[in-house]
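User: Predict the structure for this protein chain, please.
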Amino acid sequence: MIRQNMQHAHEVARYHLAAAAKRQKEGYDVKLSFHTYKPGDYVWYSTEIGQLSTTPKLRVPFEGPFLVIRALTNLTYQIQLDRSGTTKVVHHNKLKPCQGNKVLKWAKGAVAKAGAEKLRVVVCCFRYLFTVRDLPICSSMILNLNFVTPAII
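Assistant: Here is the predicted structure, written as structure tokens:
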């Protein structure tokens, strides 16, 4: 008898937990906004953590604007924080698109530099794949392995 009552109580609890989870997910999904960012876009970065000693009324919710350097996946982005090249990998839900016409002086060069890092010339030589990072390429650079990073195929 006690076992049946306990099983019934567990079933009722599971039913109500499932209903609460569904209701909470629907509430979360209503507030969720999914933005895709391109390299060169300006974004604000959420600063929820680290301001616990400040009263909520005076907290600064976002820092920035920062520059999107590259999209690592559909959900994660690499942003550049300052002119010195400090970068951070962040999830899209910590970012907010920056509206306005403010232009960071160092931003144009940062995006070009990030694009150049992605541009690599691949040279196959004997059973190794060499990624050449220094351009322009000449035959002496290919023979001098100081300029290339080997990776086994």
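The chain has three domains: 1-32, 42-117, 120-152.
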